[in-house]
């Protein structure tokens, strides 16, 4: 395939995260509103251009009180910093359909380079003749690197909220 523009089908895609809570459990959540500009040959992502943004106010951890707190200045401060953005800068093939995608993540007014493992899941035509491609991505980052330091010490040792946030992205895109 040649390099082409792809549109993310948000009804068949997801952006999820996991973070440890109280050193003993994991809390999972999702972001419902996101978009991407992708220009790529899905069978060779090394020359792709990827711009991705997440509306942080769309956070959903299945607990409305927690979600409201996460939107405040204690965490995301969505009034001042409404988006998390990613802009690819380097893509390296690591195996058949496997890539390390490095780019600038901007969150909470801080920009840092992060790398995510991305898998090309395949491509084909849907029943209406539209070309589709699927991608999976995983990675993690330290929230403290972005100034997200709200926490509480636990009586038994450790902290209420872990520093590492694990990200999982599933994308279905249309040509």
UniProtKB/TrEMBL annotation:
Coiled coil spans: none
Domain of life: Bacteria
Record-annotated Lipid/polyisoprenoid-binding YceI-like domain positions: 5-174
Homology family: Belongs to the UPF0312 family.
Entry protein name: YceI family protein
Provenance organism: Paenibacillus radicis
């Amino acid at each position: 395939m040649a390099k082409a523009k792809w549109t993310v089908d948000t009804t068949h895609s997801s952006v999820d995260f996991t973070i440890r809570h109280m050193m003993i459990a994991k809390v999972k959540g999702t972001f419902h509103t996101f978009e991407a500009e992708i220009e790529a040959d899905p069978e060779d992502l090394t020359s792709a251009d990827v711009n991705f943004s997440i509306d942080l106010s769309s956070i959903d951890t299945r607990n409305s009180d927690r979600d409201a707190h996460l939107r405040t200045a204690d965490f995301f401060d969505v009034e001042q910093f409404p988006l998390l953005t990613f802009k690819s800068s380097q893509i390296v093939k690591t195996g058949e359909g496997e890539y390390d995608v490095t780019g600038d993540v901007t969150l909470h007014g801080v920009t840092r380079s992060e790398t995510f493992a991305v898998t090309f899941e395949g491509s084909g035509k849907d029943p209406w003749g539209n070309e589709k491609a699927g991608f999976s991505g995983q990675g993690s980052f330290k929230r403290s690197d972005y100034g997200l330091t709200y926490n509480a010490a636990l009586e038994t040792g450790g902290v209420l909220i872990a520093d590492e946030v694990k990200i999982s992205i599933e994308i279905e895109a249309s040509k």
